[in-house]
Amino acid sequence: MLYTGLIVVVLAGVVLGGGVVFGARTHGYDLAQQAARAGAQEIDLAAYRTNGTLRLDPARAAAAANRFLAAAGATGTVAVTAAQITVTATSQQDTPMLAGFGHPTVSVTATASATPVAGPPP
């Protein structure tokens, strides 16, 4: 009976810990998406106003994405072209249920991209 109780407790910890890791990965992907969207808002206004060309201002887009990551306590890399911004975000997430197994935090890395859009989405 003692072994059964111990097994149940260990399995519950593993299941809950797995849920925490899944949540951390979801949060990491959310960070990458939000940073990419923040960068995608930085369009080249001169080109847009002159001839309607919708393209990113690479320096401003990268700076906006990096500011978002820093404010969220994450790090990452940003790649910008005139048409798209891609952000790879890395963050550390606490895993209290796994601390007893030697994993108090998990490093999460996720990548997301965004493109500039004129007006509200369809």
UniProtKB/TrEMBL annotation:
Q: What is this protein called?
A: Flp pilus-assembly TadE/G-like
Instruction: Tell me the organism.
Output: Virgisporangium aurantiacum
